[in-house]
Amino acid sequence: MSSGAARGPLVGARFDLIDHDGRRVTNATYHGKFPLIFFGFTHCKVVCPRALTRLTAVLDGLGERAELLEPLYITVDPERDTPGRMKQFLAANFPRFTGLTGSEVELSAAREEFRVFARRQRDPEGIEEYVVPHSAITYLLDRSGVFLTHFTDVIETPELVRRLDAVLADA
Is residue 113 predicted with pLDDT exceeding 80? Predict the structure, then answer.
């Protein structure tokens, strides 16, 4: 027997965090832009650098339309990823992105909203004290900060450019 209860969206997309300049931001902060969001951490050795490099190439491929996007990098490692660390990492490697961090409670709430898996564990290679395996999905919000769509990490750069261009062409 079905309860008939209405379900909310699978991805809520709300967040209340601190940007890499120390300012409090929410999904409403970016009203008028299309936030393009990836969750990761600055000590990540493979997944995050690959994803941010790919997303940078996508932004380049979009040309002037990329100005409609707000590229955001939300940490899954608040212990190490302070606003200053996020700013330093992104300025040196991926300057088009704004880093977002916060308390474990704030970031846990954001991960839950976006349905992001992330779990701290001991580094099996012993290089770092710990690593944070996490999902590798890029999220796109609409101009009002509501979830629009997502893209998996296996979508090739030209295809992602095509898909984003189609969304932005209607903007």
Answer: yes
